[in-house]
Write a structure and sequence with these properties.
heterodimer, A: alpha+beta, eleven-stranded mixed sheet, six-stranded mixed beta barrel, 26 helices, 24 strands, 54% helix, elongated, B: alpha/beta, four-stranded antiparallel sheet
């Protein structure tokens, strides 16, 4: 039996090869994803080791709120500079140094544009002190450490990108207006040129304190223990010595360079790649199942013969399973090799995109090998179950019968109707070839369906996501259109997500034609035990911003009145907050604000305004929370939006690199543009699903062509040219693909309708992206044409004489 | 011996007048070297317009090979085939396909119809392949002649074997071909259905002047023809004009003896 199983695989090379390719694709994606992200994770860990391991204790101001970055750089309490000396004097401390750190210190290179995509690290530290330097994560690559009020060191990555070298001049802005600095040297972070797309600007401590607006203060004090002093003991001693105002933690848990974010980024990439792998594996499973079914159909007579000479059902079943196993093992091994190459290819792709992630020493782990082999062999085995059962059912007498077209089941009848509908234009356009192709797809609808289903899965996913994404974009658009009445929005570059400096807003208020400039300001607060983002809307902004009140009442001017607060419906639901509840909000600096919930506001599924979970009246907000950076500024002009007006505002902000001015519509669209990246990933999924399902279509067509040798011979005898034969096969292929796509679009519509209904309370509407759905159908049709190439050539090269004389 | 001789020096153009299909010096060899087998060993044949010719011979005599060569389904190793005076040797595969649409009709022993098409669709298939408009009156006439007008919408699987062969006859006749080739057209039919089909072929010759070349091993079928060519060992062994069943049987016995 084993010999027979392998002989059959060898005899039908095309079919075997296509099945193996299906496995290879899935396994390659899964193992590639695991290899790449495994390497990245290890690299990120080694990075945090080299960044933080020299520091045994990190001292920072105590704050009830854990994370303050991104929103308001200054709101974490700083420490007096004198803390450095107190730490240094504590017994067991070998070295101590103070540091100021911000993540919005933008470097403008020669091109006049802000370098990098953030975060924009700025560090003030006594770099010139050799003993302090062991506490730093940076290593000097070229030039000298920065010293003095006009000196800066930048990372090698930024220098490479901007073509800068020591001695050049750059402009640097720490939130406010920019100043000129001379590059003294280039540094590496640990052993890498740059942290992803981040940029780094290093200053000596006094310069940093001055530039970051923290004269006489430090953000943290870093300390190393003397020999023989365990770090934990050191931290305990420091805790006692410094009292309640300071917090002593490990450098890793402080994670001041947001390396956890890097790890999160890696895990997002891993999820995406694994999702692609799973799509490929699932679609591949259907392709393999189809191929094995075809094999069983083709071997009908052989199987019957085997049964009539005494093979048991079990033996027949085992033969099919054995074939699946061989396909799986061959595909998995090849897939591992391809996956390793894929990982390296992706790594250099990320590199080319400027997402330099340390990927040196890429290696396949044992876990990856096991997972890949398991997926690559188990999936084909599962796929073989049905064909094996079918094979075992072949009666010995079937050797003598000629099997006609079987009667279709319910699913088959559905497929037949769809094939008939999508085939109607083919019959009209394609002449006899089109008509015959349409009839052929309707002839064995079960087979058409099982071939098309691989494509259906991919198309379902893509159609559903495309519809939901279109709905989300609509939601984003409406949110801006309905709730922002300003002429312009001022935010920061990076698509307007970053905060805008209020200094920049102040500059805008002096621009020609500008009537008023308002700001929405955000900070983090502790509400009960949970953290929340809290917003303040200044008086100028109230008339340009409105809230979508779900329940309760809006205060005067649309914002909460004294002692009141708005809470979004999503935050209220997640934290069990109801209208009329009393909220106690504690700021990062420890101040307390109490307010009663006077309205629940709607936060849409895609919240492009992003004005936080809780909104406080301006006076109450201002008293407790940071106000230096605005989520965005709103600009009201005398004559409305116009290119000249926009230019005037841009001119007023020229001293503030990274500031951004747009009409509310464009700003909303920019902020929702990440949805297009989601769509891009989905398009990759579609491409993958299409490639895998192509294999299935090729398989089925190739078999159909062989089965119809007589029929094709007859058509040729009746005057069909080779070209017409090819056209017929091509149409059949296109129709099969369109049946798959049609089913997928229908299923996608249903899926999207369900998602939309579930998110209806978040303002998500069902939007039919006709263009995208048409594009999907078009891609499917194109895939059909590609899939038909080999079978069509086979069919057209068939020898007429041999075909008509077969008995 | 009424063997028709062809003067090979005569140009084919003049030969075409009155001759629907002709083969000159036809040799068909399979394989090469020591293992070469000659299926046909130099056959000359001419079929005048409006003649119904039956080709007979024991199996292996080369009768099917001869028909395949004359119909342009196979290429002779040596010799030339003319249809309507046109030398098939110079034609490309596409030109041959187009020739089959317009100048040649086929009826095979079995599997004559495309299973996914209805009777009528099968009949008009050559016209559709050529992209020609179908004349409804002509189609009605053809379907009527084979007695299938009422069943024109049926699929082949819903027709009897005899009905299927009648559809095949209609399809072969619908383009008004110069010559109709039939390969054992009654081989799979009972005698009554077979007689029906042969009657249709005979009618086409008598009423329309259709030229037919039919390969058969059935003396009764051959008796419907105007002339019977007997092959043995790849060569023409004998010919009969206006055959009767008895004379055919007698000649067959002589030839095989």
């Amino acid at each position: 039996m084993r010999r027979l199983a392998f002989a059959d695989l060898r005899a039908h090379r095309l079919r075997t090869l296509l099945s193996v390719i299906a496995v290879v694709l899935g396994v390659a994606l899964v193992s590639g994803a695991m290899t790449l992200t495994g390497t990245m994770t290890r690299a990120a860990s080694s990075l945090s080791a080299s960044a933080y391991d020299g520091v045994d204790a990190a001292v920072q101001g105590r704050s009830p709120v854990k994370r303050t970055t991104d929103l308001e750089g200054a709101s974490r309490p700083t420490l007096p500079a004198g803390t450095v000396a107190r730490v240094a004097e504590t017994p067991g401390v070998a070295t101590a140094a103070g540091e100021v750190l911000r993540d919005d210190v933008r470097i403008t290179g020669k091109g006049g544009k802000v370098s990098g995509d953030g975060p924009y690290f700025g560090v003030g530290f006594p770099f010139t002190d050799p003993s302090a330097r062991r506490l730093s994560a940076f290593h000097l690559d070229r030039g000298a450490w920065p010293s003095g009020p006009r000196a800066i060191a930048i990372d090698v990555g930024t220098a490479d990108r901007e073509g800068l070298s020591p001695g050049d001049t750059v402009r640097v802005s720490a939130g406010g207006a920019s100043h000129a600095f001379r590059v003294s040297g280039l540094v590496r972070f640990g052993n890498v040129k740059a942290l992803g797309t981040a940029t780094t600007a290093l200053f000596d401590l006094p310069t940093g304190q001055q530039l970051f607006g923290r004269p006489g203060r430090v953000d943290s004090v870093l300390a190393a223990a003397g020999s023989g002093v365990p770090p934990a003991v050191l931290r305990a001693r420091l805790g006692r010595a410094l009292g309640a105002s300071a917090q002593v933690i490990t450098a890793r848990s402080q994670d001041r360079f947001e390396l956890d974010g890097l790890k999160q980024f890696v895990s997002v990439i891993q999820s995406i790649l694994l999702a692609l792998g799973i799509v490929a594996v699932v679609v591949g499973a259907f392709t393999i199942a189809n191929a094995l079914s075809m094999a069983v159909a083709q071997q009908q007579r052989t199987l019957a013969l085997l049964r009539s000479v005494g093979a048991t059902r079990r033996q027949v079943r085992r033969m099919v399973v054995l074939q699946a196993l061989a396909i799986g093992i061959a595909g998995s091994l090849a897939g591992l090799v391809v996956g390793f190459g894929l990982a390296q290819g992706l790594a250099s792709l990320f590199d080319a995109l400027g997402l330099s992630l340390p990927t040196a020493g890429m290696q396949i782990s044992a876990g990856t090998v096991i997972a890949a082999l398991a997926i690559g062999t188990i999936v084909p085995l599962l796929a073989a179950l049905r064909p094996a059962r079918k094979a075992a059912k072949v009666a010995p007498a079937a050797a003598l019968r000629d099997a006609g077209d079987p009667a279709p089941g319910i699913a088959g009848r559905v497929v037949r109707v769809i094939a008939s509908v999508v085939g109607a234009p083919a019959a009209r356009l394609g002449g006899v070839a089109g008509m015959l192709a349409r009839r052929n797809t309707m002839r064995r609808p079960g087979r058409t369906g099982s071939t098309a289903i691989a494509l259906t899965i991919g198309v379902t996913l893509v159609a559903a996501v495309a519809i939901v994404v279109s709905g989300l974009k609509g939601t984003a658009h409406r949110q801006v259109a309905d709730h922002i009445s300003a002429d312009y929005v001022v935010a920061s570059q990076d698509k307007g997500w970053g905060p805008a400096s209020r200094e920049a807003l102040h500059a805008v208020s002096g621009a020609q034609g500008v009537r008023r400039v308002g700001a929405v300001v955000l900070d983090r607060a502790l509400v009960g035990r949970d953290e929340a983002t809290v917003a303040g809307v200044d008086s100028a902004a109230t008339s340009m911003l409105s809230y979508d009140v779900v329940s309760g009442t809006a205060g005067p001017g649309g914002v909460p009145g004294p002692g009141q607060a708005y809470v979004t419906n999503r935050y209220a639901k997640a934290h069990g907050i109801a209208l009329g509840d009393q909220l106690d909000l504690r700021s990062a600096t420890g101040k307390l604000v109490s307010a009663r919930v006077s309205a629940i506001t709607r936060q849409p599924a895609i919240d492009v305004l992003g004005v936080g979970d809780v909104t406080l009246p301006w006076v109450a907000y201002k008293a407790a929370f940071g106000t230096k950076l605005a989520r965005f500024g709103l600009v009201d002009t005398a004559d409305g939006a116009s290119p000249d007006q926009r230019a005037a505002i841009a001119k007023a902000m020229r001293a503030f690199p990274g500031a951004y001015v747009q009409t509310p519509e464009r700003w909303g669209a920019d902020q929702a543009s990440w949805l297009d990246q989601v769509l891009a990933i989905i398009v990759v999924m579609l491409a993958l699903a299409v490639v895998v399902s192509l294999l299935g279509i090729i398989n089925t067509l190739a078999l159909s062509v062989v089965e119809r040798t007589r029929e094709i011979g007859l058509l040729r005898a009746a005057g069909m040219t080779r070209r017409q034969v090819r056209r017929m096969v091509r149409w059949e292929s296109v129709l099969t693909a369109l049946v798959g796509a049609g089913l997928g679009i229908a299923a996608g519509l249903a899926l999207a309708a369900i998602v939309t209904a579930l998110l209806a309370d978040q303002g998500l509407a069902f939007v039919l992206p006709g263009g995208i759905l048409l594009a999907i159908a078009f891609v499917a049709a194109a895939a059909g044409i590609v899939a038909a190439v080999i079978p069509a050539r086979r069919a057209s090269r068939m020898d007429v004489l041999a075909a008509v004389t077969i008995d | 011996m009424l063997r028709t001789m062809i003067d090979l020096d005569r140009p084919p153009a003049t030969l075409a007048d009155g001759i629907a299909v002709a083969g000159a010096g036809l040799v068909r060899r399979y394989g090469d070297g020591d293992t070469a087998v000659d299926a046909l060993r130099g056959i000359d044949i001419e079929v005048p317009r409006g003649q119904f010719v039956a080709v007979m011979g024991p199996s292996g005599s080369g009768k099917s090979t001869l028909m395949h060569l004359l119909a342009g389904l196979d290429v002779p190793t040596e010799g030339t085939v003319y249809i309507d005076g046109e030398d098939l040797a110079g034609l490309s595969d596409d030109q041959l396909a187009k020739l089959r649409r317009t100048s040649v009709g086929f009826i095979f022993q079995s599997f004559n119809l495309v299973p996914t098409l209805t009777a009528q669709e099968n009949v008009i298939l050559p016209l559709e392949l050529a992209g020609e408009r179908v004349d409804a009156a002509w189609l009605d006439l053809v379907l009527d002649r084979v007695g299938l007008a009422p069943r024109r919408g049926h699929k082949p699987s819903e027709l009897s074997g005899g009905q299927q062969q009648r559809v095949a006859v209609a399809r072969a006749l619908v383009t008004g071909p110069s010559v109709l080739f039939a390969d054992e057209p009654t081989g799979n039919l009972d005698s009554r259905s077979g007689a029906d089909v042969l009657g249709l072929l005979r009618d086409a010759v008598d009423a329309e002047g259709q030229t037919i070349v039919m390969v058969t091993h059935d003396p009764r079928a051959a008796a419907f023809a105007d002339r019977v060519v007997f092959l043995a060992d790849g060569a023409v062994a004998r010919e009969l004009q206006d055959p009767s069943e008895e004379r055919v049987i007698a000649t067959m016995t002589e030839v095989t003896a």
